[in-house]
């Protein structure tokens, strides 16, 4: 089995792009457009304003985490759309409903990514989704992790997919 560093970046770019596009198109009827970065391997990703960040891990031939970052306003729009309710109704339900919806969108996205990895000969399974909320924080990978960051435009709002990986079983 090849090492992560031997897998072309295009494989991960194609896999995460397909996952984000499929999930947001199917679940929210929103097309996602991949926005290439100048450097897909920044040392850290800093968040200056409030964000909701969904994360799901995958364990197997490749171990890793995918974080999906979105600002709070866009997370609320996504949650209302996914739940089929107005943003006013969502506000009555509170942050927990937003967290649950973003957790589920993240789970579907990482599941689609994981299925594509499995189809390419890297079987793995998913962990339980979790949510981070806040601003002025950054996630830094451990030194042995390979990191790739991908940005997407969805209805004029940005989503960032932060992919951290290391060799698995």
Second CATH tier, the architecture: 3-Layer(aba) Sandwich
Instruction: Report, as a whole number of angstroms, the end-to-end distance.
Output: 11 Å
Count of individual domains: 1
CATH superfamily: CheC-like
Mind telling me the CATH class? Answer: Alpha Beta
Major sheet attributes = 7 strands, antiparallel
Give the SSE order as H and E letters. Answer: HEEEEHHHEEEEE
Rg over CA atoms, rounded to whole Å, is 15 Å
Percent in helix? 25-40%
CATH topology title: Chemotaxis protein chec
Spans of at least 5 consecutive residues with low confidence:
none
Instruction: Tell me what portion of residues adopts beta-strand conformation.
Output: 25-35%
Structural class: alpha+beta
| Averaged pLDDT | 89
What form results from the Cα inertia axes?
globular
Number of strands: 9
Question: Would you give an account of this structure?
Answer:
The protein is 38% helix and 34% strand. With 169 residues, the chain is α+β, with helices and mostly antiparallel strands. The chain has one domain: 3-Layer(aba) Sandwich (Chemotaxis protein chec), CATH 3.40.1550.10. Strands 1, 3, 4, 5, 6, 8 and 9 form a seven-stranded antiparallel sheet that branches. It has a two-stranded antiparallel ribbon with strand order 2-7. A hairpin with a 2-residue loop joins strand 8 (146-154) and strand 9 (157-167). The mean pLDDT is 89.
């Amino acid at each position: 089995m090849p090492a992560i560093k031997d897998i072309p970046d295009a494989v991960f770019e194609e896999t995460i792009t397909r996952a984000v596009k499929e999930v947001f198109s199917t679940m929210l009827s929103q097309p996602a457009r991949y926005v290439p970065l100048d450097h897909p391997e920044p040392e850290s990703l800093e968040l200056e304003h409030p964000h909701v960040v969904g994360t799901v891990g995958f364990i197997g031939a490749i171990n890793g985490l995918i974080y999906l970052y979105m600002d709070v306003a866009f997370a609320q729009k996504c949650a209302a759309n996914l739940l089929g309710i107005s943003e006013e109704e969502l506000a009555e339900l509170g942050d927990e409903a937003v967290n649950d919806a973003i957790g589920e969108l993240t789970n579907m996205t990482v599941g689609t990514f994981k299925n594509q990895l499995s189809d390419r000969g890297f079987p793995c399974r998913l962990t339980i989704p979790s949510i981070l909320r806040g601003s002025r924080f950054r996630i830094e990978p451990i030194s042995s992790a390979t990191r790739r960051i991908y940005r997407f435009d969805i209805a004029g709002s940005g989503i960032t997919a932060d992919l951290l990986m290391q060799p698995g079983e």
